[in-house]
Write a structure and sequence with these properties.
The chain contains 13 helices and 14 strands. Helix 6 (188-196) links the parallel strand 9 (181-184) and strand 10 (200-203). The strands form three sheets. The protein has a six-stranded mixed β-sheet with strand order 3-5-4-6-13-7, sandwiched between helices. It has helices spanning 54-69, 86-94, 105-108, 127-135, 137-144, 188-196, 209-215, 225-230, 256-259, 264-299, 307-316, 318-328, 330-344; strands spanning 2-8, 11-17, 30-33, 41-47, 73-78, 100-104, 151-161, 163-166, 181-184, 200-203, 220-223, 239-242, 247-255, 301-304. It has a single domain, classed as D-Maltodextrin-Binding Protein, domain 2, CATH 3.40.190.170. The termini are far apart. Helix 1 runs antiparallel to helix 10 and helix 4 packs across helix 13. The radius of gyration is 19 Å and the shape is globular. With 345 residues, it is α/β, with parallel strands linked by helices. The chain binds D-xylonic acid (TK8).
Length: 345
């Protein structure tokens, strides 16, 4: 059992996980991508979402690309936080106890405050801008700062634009949010944003979310369409709103301690495979997002947010950038806003 505490929303959250011992644990369900080399080194990847989600498939695709490039490695992909939920998995990668995790950037802000920049709401307007910002100088700069924290950031993959679900009423206007209890990721910025919008948010690790919704501990949550659909939140939530309030990247994190033991050729093979799999990941994630929305519209009551209402949401969260600039770092916030502006032209 691995346990530690993170501070979020002025409260301490206890994070616990059953640490998986890996290879020989028959109780774990993983996809193995293997070459012919019996002496190959096994790289374990942990993802928090389930095996239906395009992230899992993309991680397997990474394994295929890597084993085509070299027979030095096998890859094992573990889904559904079997090894650990995002934040703990990231800590394990830092400590050299796990090779790779592909996580939302949001929990990473508990380790590297600059990573909160991606949580500022209503900044990235569409996927084209997201790609340009992440693939450009700003994205590189954000990858570079990981190294001081014993992490090697290899590629930006996609979680996507987040949308709101709940089980109380249709949310069409910001006024409808009043008092709604919402799960947010473990980031102060999302907590603050939803408080500014009038809801009653609470931070929770992703692996507790379905049960929280099912048991009614919380009334709503927000995630991209593929997650809402493939994790089955429509089974326990009736209403869906197209809020598109923030874009969450997935980041491919490799353990620096393990990385430093590899040869430059091995490092290149891994880096190139992670980078190459990015295109595949974005493509399938976007396809699945479209299909997921269609399916969700059949299973939930869907509300579009009118342009007028969208502006009211945006106005309500204006203080959030100012409130969190000092924590994230003024320079990082300004670089991010400039990169988005440039990409939007
Ligand atoms: C899955 C999480 C998830 C995130 C969340 O591991 O916690 O709501 O959107 O994707 O990273």
């Amino acid at each position: 059992m691995l346990a530690f505490t993170v501070a979020c929303g002025g409260e301490e959250i206890n994070v616990e996980t059953e640490e998986a011992s890996g290879e020989d644990d028959e109780s774990l369900d993983a996809e193995e991508v293997e070459g012919d080399n019996p002496d190959a080194q096994t790289l374990r990847i942990s993802v928090g979402i389930n095996e239906q989600h395009p992230l899992y498939d993309s991680a397997i695709h990474f394994g295929e690309l890597l084993t085509e490039r070299t027979d030095d490695f096998n890859v094992e992909v573990y889904h559904s936080a079997q090894i650990a939920a995002d934040l703990v998995a990231t800590e394990m990668v830092q400590n050299g106890d796990l090779d790779i995790t592909i996580t939302s950037t949001s929990p990473v802000m508990n380790i590297i405050p600059e990573y909160g920049v991606f949580d500022l709401p209503f900044v990235i307007p569409d996927e084209e801008v997201a790609d340009e910002v992440l693939d450009g100088e700003f994205g590189d700069q954000m990858l570079d700062i990981l190294e001081d924290q014993d992490l090697v950031g290899l590629a930006w993959w996609e979680n996507g634009f987040r949308n709101l679900t709940n089980d109380v009423r249709p949310i069409e206007s910001i006024d409808d949010l009043e008092g709604l209890t919402l799960r947010t990721m473990e980031t102060d910025i999302h907590l603050d944003a939803w408080s500014e919008m009038g809801a009653n948010p609470t931070p929770m690790s992703f692996d507790e979310l379905y049960t929280g919704l099912q048991q009614g501990t919380i009334e709503g949550q927000e995630n991209p369409y593929p997650i809402i659909n493939l994790e089955g939140y429509h089974e326990v939530q009736q209403y869906l709103s197209g809020t598109n309030h923030v874009y969450t990247p997935y980041i491919f994190l490799f353990s620096k301690q393990i990385w430093d033991e590899l040869t430059p050729e091995q490092q290149d093979a891994i880096a190139e495979s992670a980078y190459e799999a990015r295109e595949y990941n974005r493509e399938i994630t976007r396809d699945v997002a479209e299909d997921s929305l269609e399916e969700l519209q059949n299973n939930m009551e869907f509300s579009e947010i009118t342009d007028e209402e969208f502006e009211r949401f945006q106005e309500a969260v204006e203080p959030v950038i100012e409130n969190h600039s000092a924590t994230i770092g003024e320079d990082t916030v300004n670089d991010f806003l400039s990169a988005v502006e440039e990409a939007s032209d």
